[in-house]
Amino acid sequence: MSMSHLLKDTVLLLKKNGKKIDDIKASVQSKKIIIMRSDILIETGDLIQRKMSNGGEETYEIIDPGFYERHSSIPAHYQITYKKLGLPEAGQAVKDITYNFYGSNSRVNNHSIDNSLNVVNLNSDINDSISQLRLEIEKSINCSEKKQEAFEIIDAVEQQFSSDKPSKTVVKTLLATLPSVASVASIGSFLLSCLGG
Description:
The protein is an alpha+beta fold.
């Protein structure tokens, strides 16, 4: 006999790392929360939120996940011991969740308008190398037209390093069009090594 008919509540799992898992069928009881799933990892300190049909919302902090492996006809499941959080505690607990974002200018707006100004700082070694490239071009090229072309190429290289996913192929192609000067080639090799693989 399936136990799913006993799972009358729908809950949201808020992981400590910021991940959310929606639409989990559960049975919220006075001392335990039963979740008949083994495909999600529930850990101590995670939060469970239950929205009720009357418009209310309850938040529970997991004290002991209580995971049980499959036994005979009973599937693997959780029998969670929890601490019910009051409104101030629940609000603070949800605020304490860490969100991890990667790449330049990554952000999240949680019920707010973003009026922020974002500044991207390239790795200082890359900045120094690009500045050094400009100095080498300044010293080694006398023709102002060719010098301007070289500076435009360096600007394009800098834009690649400022992007979320700089292309090693594009940077390599751009650097190959710069004048053949030993110091320029050496700096170019360093910049390419910064892109890895």
